[in-house]
Amino acid sequence: MLPIELFGAPEGSRLGHCLLDVENLTAHLRITTPSAACPVCRSDARRVHSRYTRRLADLPCFDRAVRLQVTVRRFSCPKLDCPRRIFAERLPGFAEPHARTTVRLRQAHESIGYALGGEAGSRLTMDLSMATSPDTLLRRVKQLKDAGAPPPRFVGIDDWAWRKGQRYGTIVVDLERSDVVDLLPDRDPDTVKEWLNEHPGVELISRDRWSDYAKASAEAAPQAQQIADRWHLLKNLREAIERLFERHSTVIGEAIKAAETPSEPVSNPTTTEAGSGEAVAEPSCPQPSSAAGPKSVKLELPEQADGSSALATSSTAAEPSRRGVQRLRRQRRVERFQQVHERRKLGHSERRIARELGLARKTVRRYLRSETCPDWSSGRWQRSHVDAHREWIDARLAEGLTSVVALHRQLAERGFRGAYGSVWRYVTKRLGVDGKKGERLIASKPSVTPPPSAKQLSFACVRRPEKQKPLEQAQLAAIRARSDDLAAALDLADEFAALIRKRSPTTLSDWLVKGESSSTPELRRFAEGIRRDEAAVLAAVTQQWSNGPVEGHINRLKTIKRQMYGRAGFVLLRTRVVRVA
Fold first, then answer.
1. Residues 505 and 569 in one domain
2. Do 9 and 94 fall within a single domain?
3. Do 519 and 563 reside in the same domain of the chain?
4. CATH number, residue 161
5. What is the pLDDT of residues 482-513, one digit of tens each?
6. 296 in a structural domain
7. Could you tell me if 458 and 531 lie in one domain?
C-alpha cells in the first residue's frame, strides 16, 4: 500500500485500493473528517446528505499518469436562513471546486506553459505523462496573476515592434532587479503618462532619444531624473558620420584608393585536360591584322552531292578534342537548319515544324528568317578590349609572368577597361600556341574587394580603437591625411565617443561648445540635438544606468512572440513576458 502523503491529499483523507496498469496509476481516496464548513455562511455542518466521486488528474508517479478517484460528501447546512441548503465539502490546497486536476498538477502546467507556450509545452507534457492540450496550457498561463513586487524606483522604457514599421508597444523594466514591470499595448505618450501617474515612486527613467518618451516622462514624472541611453547616443553619432562620409564620397574614395597596396598573387601550376592522358593545346588566337603571329584555324563545311553537309578538315595535323565537339555541334545545327527549310517548302507551319523537330518556335522562326545557318563559332576573330594590349601581354608572357590576376591588375592600371575573362581567354590561347602543349592556366577570378561604404566606415569610426581592424585603421588614417576638414570632424567624433565611454577628461559642456562651432554641418546639427537633451545626456555620461537590460528583455520578448506562431495576443504575451507569481 502506498503512503497517503505521496498524493498530497488533504488532512483527514484515507487511501483505499490502488490499481496499476501499463499507462495509469489509479488511486481511490475518501475524506473522513466529521464535519465541513459551509462555503457561504461558514457554519460547521455534520449532517451528510449524499456522496459522489470526483475524478482528478495528479502529478505522474512511477512514469505513469496518476488518476485519483476521490469520494466527496455532500452536507446539509444547519442554518435555516442560509441560501445554500446543500453543499459539497471543499478540498483546500488539494483541488479547486469543479477542477479536473489537482493544484500541484495545475502549477506544473502553468510552469510549462509559461516557459514553452502551447504547442511545445503540450508535446512536453505528453512525454512527462501529464498530457494536456495547448489551449489548456495557454489558458492557465493567462490566468496567472502578477507578482507582488515592490513598486519600481529606477525604470527603463523602450518600444518594441508588434510588426516592424507598423505597430509598436512599450516595455517597462525595473533596472534594479532587471525584471519586466509592465508591457503596454502601444507607444503613445498618453499611455506612458498614464502608467507613470499610476507609479508615483519612480525616481529615474532611462530611455532612448525619442522625443515623445522624453516629453511624456517630463509631464507625468517631473520629479524623476531622465537618462539618455549611451548606445543610442553612439548610434546617433554614427548616423551623423555616415551622412558626412556620403557628402565627401569622392574624397574618401580617392583616399582609400591611394592607400591600397596590391600584392602579387602566385599563379597555379599548369594542369592537363581532365580525362585525357595527353596535354591539349588551345587553338591559336586570331589576329585582327596581318601582323606576325599564328593564324587561326578556319572551318569550312562544303555541301555534298546529296545536299548534306560534311566536316571539313583542318590544315593542322592534330585536332583538339574541344574543337571536335564544336564541329559536331555545328554539323547538327546545320542539319536542323536544312530540315526546317525543307519542311517550310512543303507548306508546314512554324508550330508543326517545331513540334516535329523538337525545337522552340523562336528557333524555327530565326532559322526561317536566315538564308544561311547562324554561326556561333568562337573560332572567328571578334573585336575585343584586349586587341590594343596584345603586344604588351605577349611581352609579359615572354618574361614568364603567366598570372592572369596580375596581368589584369596591371592592365587596369594602364587604362584597360575589359573584363577579367577576356584576358584569361587570350592568355590561355597564347600559352597553347607558343609550344607549351598542355599548359592551361588555372587562375581563380580575382576577388576584387569593393571599397567600403559610408555606413561601413561610420561603424569603424565609433568602434573602440582597440577593436578596430588594421585595414580600418589604415583607411581612416588615409582619410584624415587627405582632408583637414574630415580629420577635424573625425577627431571631434572620437572625442564624443570617448566621452560617452567615460574615457575622456573632457566635459560635455566643453564638447558641445566645440560641436556647435564646428564647420561640419552634420556634427553641428548633432551637437544641437544633444544641447536640447543636455540634462539626460549629462546623466548618461556621469551615471551607471543604461537601457542595456531593456534591450535584453526586448530580445526575449521577440523570442516568445515568434515562438507562439502568431497566437501571442496582448494578454498572453504580457503574462509570459512580465514576471509572474
1. no
2. yes
3. no
4. 3.30.420.10
5. 999 999 999 999 999 999 988 888 899 999 99
6. no
7. yes
Q: Rounded to the nearest 10 degrees, how much is the dihedral formed by the CA atoms of 114, 115, 116, 117?
A: 20
Residue 356's domain spans which residues?
Answer: 327-369
- The whole-angstrom separation of Cα 113 and Cα 108 is 9
Residues 461 and 496 in one domain: yes
Specify if 26 maps to a domain: yes
Is residue 297 domain-resident? no
CA distance 284 to 394: 13
Give the β-pairing of 204-207 and 154-163: parallel
Asked whether residue 349 falls in the same domain as residue 331, the answer is yes
Q: Which residues pair with 225 in a beta bridge?
A: 204
Question: d(Cα 319, Cα 426) in Å, to the nearest integer?
Answer: 19
CA distance 102 to 93: 9
Q: What is the pTM of this model?
A: 0.58
Cα 174 to Cα 550: distance, rounded to the nearest angstrom? 9
Neighbouring-strand partners of residue 271: 440
Handedness of CA 265, 271, 273, 274 (dihedral sign): negative
Phi-psi region of 80 (alpha: psi -120 to 50; beta: other; left: phi over 0): alpha
**445 and 420 in contact (C-beta within 8 Å)?**
yes
Domain boundary among 345, 369, 393: 369
What does the alpha-carbon distance between residue 550 and residue 173 come to, in Å, rounded to a whole number? 6
Taking the C-alpha atoms of residue 338 and residue 154, their distance in angstroms, rounded to an integer, is: 88
Strand pairing class (44-45; 204-207): unpaired
Instruction: Convert the pLDDT of each residue in 426-473 to its tens digit.
Output: 888 877 766 554 444 444 455 566 788 899 999 999 999 889 999 999
**Rounded CA separation 312/375 (Å):** 15
Instruction: Provide the grid cell at 342.
Output: 525543307
Query: What pairing do the DSSP bridges indicate for beta strands 64-76 and 48-61?
Result: antiparallel
Instruction: Give the whole-angstrom CA distance, residue 364 versus residue 369.
Output: 9
Closest Cα partner for 127 from 68, 63, 170, 81? Answer: 63
Q: Are 537 and 567 contained in the same domain?
A: no
Residue 489 vs residue 285, higher pLDDT: 489
Based on the fold, state whether residues 179 and 253 are members of the same structural domain.
no
Longest CA–CA span in the chain (Å) reads 128
Q: In total, how many domains does the chain have? A: 5
Let me know if residue 383 belongs to a domain.
no
